[in-house]
Fold:
Amino acid sequence: DSGVTQTPKHLITATGQRVTLRCSPRSGDLSVYWYQQSLDQGLQFLIQYYNGEERAKGNILERFSAQQFPDLHSELNLSSLELGDSALYFCASSVDQPGEQFFGPGTRLTVL
Amino acid sequence: AQSVAQPEDQVNVAEGNPLTVKCTYSVSGNPYLFWYVQYPNRGLQFLLKYITGDNLVKGSYGFEAEFNKSQTSFHLKKPSALVSDSALYFCAVPTGANNLFFGTGTRLTVIP
Structure:
C-alpha cells in the first residue's frame, strides 16, 4: 500500500459527460501528479500541483483541469468526454524529490 | 529534452534464469534514472533509482540496474527470475519540475 488513495476505482460514463476523479496523497507529501495510461499513448504526465499551486503541465487537454485543495487532496476534472478519454488515471505524490513518486491504485475510466 | 526508450515490448524468460529489461536514455547533464513496476490491476511501484555514484544500483525484490554512461543505458537485471516477477516494467527520467517521463514499458513474462 503506497498510502495514496484514489476514488472511484471504476467509472463508466457516456460521451459528452463530465467526471471528477479524486486523490489523497501520502501524509506529508506536498506534490501531487496526475498521469494517464492508455494502450495507444502509454503512460503520460498530465499535471502537477505543489502545495496548492500548479507547478507543471504535460499533455493535458483543455477539456481537463485539476486543482489541489488546502488539505492537499487533488481533483482531476474531465469534461466533454470522448471515447478516446477511456484510460487509467493515476495520481502520485512525493516529497518533491526527483522521481520517487508513490502511485495510487488508479481510476479506470470507461467512456461509452 | 529528457527521455528514455525501452526497445522491447515483451521479454520472456524461464523461471530461474537471469533476466534483463533494457532501457536507454537521452538526458542533458547528470542523469537521474528510475525503474518502476506495475503488477496487474495495480498502480506503479518504485523499484530503484540511479542518481550518482556506484554504477550498479540495488533495489527492491532482488532487482538491480546497471548504469552505463558510454552506452547511455540503464538496464534492469535480476540473477534468477520468479514467476511472480511477471509484470510491466517502466524506465523513467524526471523532467522539469520532477514529473516523470516514462518509457513505453516492457512486459516481462516468466515462464514456469
Summary: The interface with chain A takes residues 32, 34, 36, 42-46, 49, 90, 92-102, 104-105 of chain B (CB under 8 Å).
